[in-house]
C-alpha cells in the first residue's frame, strides 16, 4: 500500500509539471484559437532569463517575477510582429510557424547559454514530509498547490471576467468581435502575453526539478499536449485533471503492468488519447461545439 501511495503522490507531482505547460497552451488557444507548439521553448527561455537574474544576485522570487514581466512583453511582441501575419489565414500555416518558432527560440537559448546542464535555484524548501507512508518533498507539494491556484485563476478569468469573455469572443470569431467594438489586436497581444507569463512560471517551477537545458521542456510538451487533448481545449480544470491522470497512470502502469514497464510508460498518454477521442472527442471537460449551417 505504501508503494501505491508513493506512486500516486509522485504522479501528482510529475503531472503538475505537465499541467503548468498545458495551462499556457490552453490560455493561448482560448485567446487566439491556435495551439502554440513553441510554448515549451518560450517557457525555457523565460526560465533562462530568471536564471540570469539569480546569477546577478537577485532573490529567486524577484527573479521569477521579473522574468514573468519580460515574458509577457515578449509574448505580446511575438503576436504583434510575427503571429498576426498568419492568424487570419490558414490555421495550418500558423501551426507550422509556431513549430518554426520553437526551433528558433531553442537555438537562441542554446547560443546564449550553451547546452550544459544548469542548476536552477528552487523557490521552495527541499525538505520532505511523510504522508500516509509516502515520502513527499515540500517542493512537490508547493508546486502542485501553485498549479491548482493558477488553474482556479484561469477558470475564473475565462468564465467570470470581462477580459476573459472578450478573449474567448476574439478567439471564436475575430470579425464579429471587431464589429462589437472589441479591440481585437490588443486582446490578441494580451492573450499571448498572459500565456508567455504563465510559461515563465511553468519554466521556473520545472527547472529546479529537472535541470535547466534548452531542451528541458521537449518531453513535457508532448505530455502537456496530451493533457490538453484529454482535458479539453476549453477547460483549464480538465487540463490539470488530465495531466494528473497521466502522471499517476504512467507511474502505476510502469510498476504494475509488466509488459509496459518504465521503457514503454510514455505510451500510456497516447492510449488514453485514443480511448477518450473515441468516447468523447471534445475531451473530458471540453464543450461540444455546435455549428449552424
In words, what does this structure look like?
With 293 residues, this protein is mostly helical. Helix 1 runs parallel beside helix 5 (138-160), helix 1 (2-32) packs across helix 9 (218-231) and helix 3 runs antiparallel to helix 8 (184-206). The protein has helices at residues 2-32, 39-55, 60-81, 91-113, 138-160, 162-172, 174-179, 184-206, 218-231, 236-256, 267-279, and strands at 128-131, 134-137. A two-stranded antiparallel ribbon has the order 1-2. The chain has one domain. Strand 1 and strand 2 (134-137) form a beta hairpin. The model has no long low-confidence stretch (mean pLDDT 84).
Q: How would you concisely characterize the structure shown here?
A:
The chain is mainly α.
Distinctive features:
293 residues, mainly alpha, two-stranded antiparallel ribbon
What is the succession of H and E elements?
Answer: HHHHEEHHHHHHH
As laid out across the biggest beta sheet, the strand order is 1-2
Shape: globular
Number of helices: 11
In whole angstroms, the N-to-C terminal distance is 55 Å
| Class from helix and strand fractions | mainly alpha
Integer-rounded radius of gyration: 19 Å
Which sheet architecture does the biggest sheet show? 2 strands, antiparallel
Report the β-strand fraction as a percent range: under 5%
Average per-residue pLDDT, rounded, comes to 84
Counted up, domains total 1
The strand count comes to 2
**Fraction in helix:** 55-70%
Spans of 5+ residues with little confidence (pLDDT < 50)?
none
